[in-house]
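Teaching assistant here, posting this on the class forum so everyone can see the example we discussed in section. The complex has two components, and the goal was to see what a joint structure prediction looks like when all of them are supplied at once.
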Amino acid sequence: MGLVPTPSIARTHVMNEPAIELRGLQHRYDTDLVLRGVDLRIEHGEVFGFLGHNGAGKTTAMNILTTLITPTAGTAAVCGYDVVTERSEVTRRIGYLPADVRMYGHMSALENLEFLAKLSGLPDARAAAMEALEFLGCADLAKRRVGTFSTGMRQRIGIAQAIVHRPHVLLLDEPTSGLDPMGVRQLRNTITQLNAELGMTVFMNTHLLSEVSKVCTTIGVLNHGELIYNDSIENTTLRFPDESSLEDIYVRVGGPTP
Amino acid sequence: MSESTRRITQVARHEYRAALRSRVLVILIAILVASTIGSVLIGASDYAAQLADYNTYRAAAEAQGLTRIAPSPLAVLALLRGALEYIEILGAIIAITLGYLSVSRERVNRTLPLMRSRPLTGAELATGSYLGALGIFATLIVATALVGVVSLGLIGHDWISPIQVLRVTLACLAALLYLSAFYCLGAIATARAKVPVNGLTIALGIWLVVVLVLPQIGDTLDADNQLPGGLFQALGLDHDGELAVLTHFTGYERVRTGIEEASLAKHFERFAFAMTDVKERYRPYGLSWLLNETRNNIAWLLAYAAVLFAALRRTLSRQQPIETGGNS
């Protein structure tokens, strides 16, 4: 059974606007300015790797895009919808995988997914949940309690909950954290599959440069709340022909060694 | 059904099921139900004996051809007093615990961001959780009332009339309002506290003052309601003497009355006791008279429930779904 991006949402509007657009985005925690006027545009179909050291502001940017926090200044939009004033439209179009995803441990994977799918307004939530599990090749986990899952299994169910409502934009916060090499490889394949087969735009926070070079089409580097670099992987390789790896490029453009 | 209503219903169902899966809550509910049933069963068997005595007297009086036979002094619904008092005290603790669990579960599991990154708003989350909690309370109250009423019939040998069923139902509705207010208190305190368990402690502290301390102050110093050991009784003053003394303490009397009026537990108790014939002075009157007499208590209960629910909606709407200030 295959998943298809939901056609019910006004796709014309969606496709005419960039998948994600940040304009002068700022955020402050008390006196600490963690995002300093970030401007960024991500087109549909891209797999965007948001790089930066711990505390650079990546998670804050993602929390703004997921509508979980309100920016102090500037604007952020998903598919042309403002995350503050059009929250409901935004949340219909995003799928979110938090770092260290947790779910209801006493419920089965299918129950967790069904509950979240219903909150997204899916009419046949159970079928959608089952489809998502089958798409990710983990239908065998459907009836098992999430509390008994390993990190890798939890991550797969986490992705399933993020895609169960067929979002246009998938927001992944440090998706590889805690995964073993096999898990990382599996996740990489999943991201590629979601992008290629379902046409989802992927926005991924990470500091694993090896993953970025294998999966992403575009990268952005955030340093102390400022976007110091943003270009496609292709152009990046052309611009820095002398550097042998993305890690070298990352250091070159100003990011500290991850 | 609108999309918003569907989401609220979904959260309510989720809340209801999650509450039933909480071991702490189930134990507390079991204690409440066992205490209530125990109290009603003991009362009902005692009542059966008293009813038999009265029926013997009545049969003897009729056999002697007496025309003036004393009416039964028994009030079957008054046997529910224990149940109402358990709801007043233990029920409030259960409601606060449910409010705490409802908020802390999402915070500790870190599932709040998953829910709030969907079209669900804070107000919908609050309403859904509240309705789920009402479902739990309704189940608890209805089960307790049913066991109580059936026990009165089977053991007390006195099946209650339809109008008495209505009065018990009204008392149950008051209990629902009362418990919902404490649920909101527990949930608000937990949502506002940095560490969830501190919210529970604060809510239980407020419960202690509102349910135990304030009504006790009122009862101990009330000239109309002297407990053994009360101030005026200890001074050996009769009722007129008490009133005469109190004319010199109008400010104090105003404060005391205010404290009593502010007590949510008092309002619930007065209304529920009036409905169930616990207070002897209410027994001669019909339902419409009782409702009119206790309208003030009904209004206070409604006001408390409405204000606390509004505060819960506001708190959860403003609550950040994630702990901020950490890894940025």
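For the discussion questions: Confidence is low (pLDDT under 50) at residues 6-12 of chain A. Chain A is about 35% helix and 25% strand. Think about how each of these relates to the inputs above.
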